[in-house]
Write a structure and sequence with these properties.
This protein is 84% helix and 0% strand.
Length: 242
């Protein structure tokens, strides 16, 4: 029975992905016939890539609903009622760092930054800056949850600091920083880390899962902006000294 339900859930996920993929594939097919005229071997590789992306996303989303979300919620619920719930802070840093380092979109951003800068900005510094930034801000999100502090005390000063830092960072890093804010809020962070926070908020006395549990992703989106612009300031200073 459970296997049948899992199969039906997988069919539902695959149908949703098909609706998302279809317009892109149809648009490419139209442009290929109308003006692109790409070689057949290239189109074949593209079709293989789309098929692998479709299957990978389908299995990933199925794993999220069946594994990541329930596991994260259960972990958060257990820690939320424990007397050592303060451990959420270091765990938040570890989970945020690991989820960002494993996020495919973050790696793509780091690769593209290295290409666009002709190797002047390496992948590893960008990846490390993003992972550390997200780890710190997820830990701050756990502090917010434990202390019952409003998210405005973190978001408003954070974005004000980001605006001030645009004065000292380079234009290339500023643009990449604001793109990185969306890139870091990918499926790894959203599914697992947010599930832990919601589970802990639901289990802790005096906490509202909606008011206290949500808001973490806003901090995750802010972290890469600050960390990448900090990296830009360091690169600008290094360039001025050389």
């Amino acid at each position: 029975m459970n296997i049948l339900l899992d199969f039906l859930d997988f069919r539902h996920v695959a149908a949703e992905l098909l609706m998302a993929f279809a317009p892109l594939v149809l648009f490419f097919a139209y442009m290929q016939k109308r003006s692109l005229r790409l070689p057949g071997s290239y189109v074949l590789r593209l079709v293989k890539g789309v098929a692998l992306s479709f299957l990978g996303l389908a299995f990933f989303l199925q794993g999220v609903t069946q594994g990541f979300l329930p596991a994260g919620t259960e972990i958060g619920s257990i820690i939320g009622v424990a007397p050592w719930r303060w451990i959420l802070v270091p765990l938040g840093f570890i989970f945020g760092f690991a989820a960002t380092a494993a996020e495919p979109a973050v790696r793509v951003l780091a690769i593209e930054m290295e290409k666009a800068s002709a190797g002047a900005v390496g992948q590893k510094p960008v990846l490390m800056a993003l992972a550390l930034g997200v780890g710190v801000f997820v830990a701050l999100g756990m502090v917010k949850l434990l202390a019952g502090v409003s998210i405005l005390w973190f978001v408003v000063p954070g974005y004000l600091a980001a605006l001030v830092m645009t004065r000292f960072s380079t234009p290339a890093f500023i643009s990449a920083a604001f793109d990185a804010g969306g890139v870091a809020t990918g499926p790894m962070t959203v599914t697992f880390v947010m599930a832990i926070v919601l589970g802990a908020a639901g289990a802790m006395e005096g906490r509202d899962p909606v008011a206290d549990g949500f808001g973490l992703i806003a901090l995750v989106a802010l972290a890469p902006i600050l960390s990448v612009m900090t990296l830009g300031i360091l690169y600008a200073r290094k360039r001025s000294e050389s």
